[in-house]
Amino acid sequence: MDFKNTPKIDQVGLVERADRFKTRSIKKESKIQGLKLALNMIDLTTLEGKDTSGKVKQLCYKAMHPDHSLNVPTVAAVCVYPNYVAIAKSALGNSKVNVAAVATAFPSGNSNLKVKLEDTRMAVDAGADEIDMVISRGKFHEGEYQFVFDEIAAIKEACGKARLKVILETGELGTADNVRRASDIAIHAGADFIKTSTGKISPAATMPVTLLMLEAIRDHYLKTGKMVGMKPAGGISDAKTALHYLVMLRETLGQDWMSNRWFRFGASRLTNDILMQLKKQESGIYQSGDYFSKD
Predict the structure, then answer these.
(1) Which of the two ends of the chain, N or C, has the fewest CB atoms closer than 10 A to its terminal CB?
(2) Which DSSP state fits 146?
(3) SS3 sequence of 39-98
(4) How far apart are CA 294 and CA 47, in angstroms?
(5) Which pLDDT score, from 0 to 100, does residue 46 have?
(6) In the chain, what is the straight-line distance between the N-terminal and C-terminal CA atoms, in Å?
């Protein structure tokens, strides 16, 4: 495929289309269902230099038991560095919560392929169900699109049975045309998910960028019949915004994508706001964030 001739994007039209999803009215029962679905789509994440085994275990407990006083589902996955995969896997036991690991010299992606493959295999061998890799943005900006494609394909092969999420780091790509091009490269190279951001730079996920990536997924599906997942990550911290994303997902890709198999939120802070909103729906009282664990 010639990745130099990908579709040109109307930036103004893209923003206008994304803004329309914010106008949808969601009533009480639908809102509760939407909030629970959003909670079940979260990748609860800790990716800090000060991470400890204890913090990872605590995060795993919260992933399985977001709130004991509410009838709510688990989150989708716990996302950690590769050296914490075994700890997370053990802590999660037989739960349905997956373990995701960042790899490939996260978050910069600046390393050689040998190191990236070793990083990926280490996480998979430790039990990771999912790998979140970052593309080589420097090579992308140099126009070496085949290099980016080949690297993703090699990491996909190293994943084995683990599902691969490919992080584009859209805030560093510069233009909507570049985001579309990077999305197409990742999809054609075998990504199971495409993901906006590492969460380490700003801007991270936005509705227009996520819509653009959803449209790339839709176009690929219409041509091939193959479903690809989507993960907006970073900057989504409140339940109202999460519901807007779900409306956009439903109206762009349809009901088949409305599960955590095909859509994720990379937004740990979102968890507590969803729980606070669900408490309010149940009791009519809006509780303080101090009543919820800080991750």
Answers:
(1) N
(2) H
(3) HHCEEEECCCCCCCHHHHHHHHHHHHCCCCCCCCCCCCEEEECHHHHHHHHHHHCCCCCE
(4) 14
(5) 95
(6) 42
* CA-wise closest residue to 78 among 130, 124, 29: 130
User: Which residues have CB under 8 Å from 289's CB, separation 6+?
Assistant: 272, 276
Q: Per-residue pLDDT for 26 more than 70?
A: yes
Domain hosting 235: range is: 3-291
Distances, alpha carbon 42 to alpha carbons 33, 39, 115, 173, 242, in Å: 15, 6, 29, 25, 10
- 132 is an active site residue: yes
Answer whether residue 162 shows pLDDT above 80: yes
Q: How far is residue 227's CA from residue 216's CA, in Å, rounded to a whole number?
A: 11
Question: What CATH number should be reported for the domain holding residue 8?
Answer: 3.20.20.70
In the three-class reduction of DSSP (H, G, I as helix; E, B as strand; rest coil), residue 264 is classed as coil
Q: Closest Cα to residue 132, out of 171, 181, 212, 78?
A: 78
Helix axes 268-283, 239-253, angle to 10 degrees: 100
In the set 132, 184, 192, 273, the catalytic residue is: 132
Helix H or strand E segment including 235: none
Q: Distance (Å, rounded) from C-alpha 216 to C-alpha 221?
A: 9
Whole-number Å distance between alpha carbons of 269 and 19: 23
Integer Cα distance of 293 and 272 in angstroms? 8
Residue 195 among the catalytic residues: yes
Q: Which tokens belong to 282? A: 């149940």
In what helix (H) or strand (E) does residue 167 lie, and over which residues does it extend? strand 163-167
Give the model confidence (pLDDT) of 200-233 as tens digits.
988 899 999 999 999 999 999 999 999 999 999 9
Distant-in-sequence, close-in-space partners of 266: CB < 8 Å, separation ≥ 6: 43, 45, 79, 195, 196, 197, 199, 205, 231, 232, 233, 234, 236
Q: Catalytic: which of 62, 165, 195, 279? A: 195
Element at 2 (helix H, strand E) = none
Q: Which of 89, 116, 231, 279 is catalytic?
A: 231
